[in-house]
Amino acid sequence: MEELDLLKKAWQKDTQSFQQVTENEIYKMLHKNSSSSVKWILIISILEFVLWTFISVFFNTDEYIKQMHAEEMMIYLKILTYVNYAVILWFLYCFYTNYVKISATTSTKQLMQDILRTRKTVQNYVWYNLGMMFVSMIIGFIMEFLYNPQLSVIKDKIAHDEGNGTIIKIVCILSVVMIVFLVIFWLFYKLLYGFLLRRLSNNYKELKKIDL
């Protein structure tokens, strides 16, 4: 952003005619920077989609589910998987349309609106993924508890626990595990998209000064 800072200083101290030229140069620079940020958001989201798809294919859970004799759960898991893919692809389409729109924008106000829309889309995307991880972990814990024969000792202990102490301990442990994983993934997304969102936010603030 050093070039932008130099232009801003020149804009503030030079003549009125030069101010108009510099304002246009600042807009062009902010537009280019914003378009580049949205392009990288699209690229990163596609790479992330490819990575998770590869992981899901490489670590096929069907055999593990069959070993637990939980075949009746497979249909629900497949439906959840298909819905998740559909939603993720919809987000990728939104990222692409945002990139196309922001690249073709020719006015300051429209660019500001495009930046806000892009930031909102990314935020919704991150919250959706965290929510899906939460749901997936809940389903995984339930399946393990109901179908994994290695947990029969724990189930017997719960059945003979009149004070429900064992259940409380298990719920607390699982809650801590889920919170830790969700925080890790939240930090992961903050690292992936946080820098680009901050750039867009800074661009929006600079555009707002120009638009005054």
Automatic annotation (TrEMBL):
Ranges annotated as spanning the membrane: 38-59, 79-104, 125-147, 167-189
Domain of life from the UniProt record: Bacteria
Keyword terms, alphabetized: Membrane, Transmembrane, Transmembrane helix
Protein name per its UniProtKB record: RDD family protein
